[in-house]
Amino acid sequence: MKIAVAGTGYVGLSIAVLASQRHEVIAVDVIQEKVDLINKKVSPIEDHEITEFLNNKKLNLRATTNPEEAYTGAEVIFVAGPTDYNTEGNFFDTTVIERIFDDIFKYNKNAIVCIKSTIPVGYTETIRKNYPGMRLIFSPEFLREGKALYDNLHPSRIIVGEKSQDAEVIARILKEGSLDTDTPVLFTSSTEAEAIKLFANSYLALRVAYFNELDSYALKYNLDTRQIIEGVGLDPRIGMHYNNPSFGFGGYCLPKDTKQLRANYEHVPNNIIQAIVDSNSTRKDFIADTILAKKPRKVGIYRLIMKEGSDNFRASSIQGIMKRIKAKGIECIVYEPVLKEDHFYGSRKITSLDEFKKISDVIVTNRHHPELDDVKDKVFTRDLFTRD
User: Fold this and answer.
1) Considering 253, 276, 291, 318, which one is annotated as catalytic?
2) pLDDT tens across 254-264, in order?
3) Class assignment of domain 224-380?
4) What is 2-188's CATH number?
């Protein structure tokens, strides 16, 4: 088959690489630099498996900035453009993916169009009316930053928001490229599929928030957080996974998905969904106050990225801590090799790790790294299990 993929972020590029093992795939992006890198078999994002596949696997993959070239003749088009939550209007901004739909409708409205972007509940059903005849299907993604292709190769489940032959085509493309043979496949309506995505991510955010609040309690009363978490986690109904304290949930998905789900609850009584959103700010306030209580003159922010193996620091939780500390007049410096600029929101970037360690009174890091072992007395982190 000829397959087009719109967008070459984590979601789009991982799908493009996955599908290009068996099909002709053209990825389209508006950024020429990313397109050039992909055509040179260089990943524009940090993802170990994507880099490995581009270097070592025989893939039928190329990239372009020309939507007409990508969409014309494609039998399937995956849409993986970015959406973001508009906090002022309390809605998902779907402008980018609708521009993609406009191009698809112009060049090839007969293709099966699979939306992989995160969207509000009810969106697919509503947007179909604006593109009559377009075969729109929603299929949620459940990918981790830096592990996007790995999660496509070993999917926990494949969900397709339609019960049709078109839906079976989408499921087959996703399943045949994976390395697992027993992946569960669920066909639902589009609205239920959209709800699955938001409720799944909101539950993950809830779990992060729960163990963070447990940690806040332990910090307040000088208790051993790790012992408490281990004792709680030994209950098989709870488990010892996804329980490492942090500065809060951040990144592409969890903050915007929880806020979108909260907006969907406008006319539905709720307590938990609102509390998930609120808890993230409360946690960051508490962490910042704990750091400020040490009375540092200069705070070093070690890495802005979300997690090890990622190059993304969009909406990372440590930024919220940094903003709160700076608001109290405390100078912050940043050590982030991925950052190209000399400053980050007015804070100076330090390129030498040795200098960074020397001049920082407190070093704040969401996740501990062995290269900080020699200055453990300066390090503030809530990473108790040295894992994400």
Assistant:
1) 253
2) 888 899 899 88
3) alpha beta
4) 3.40.50.720
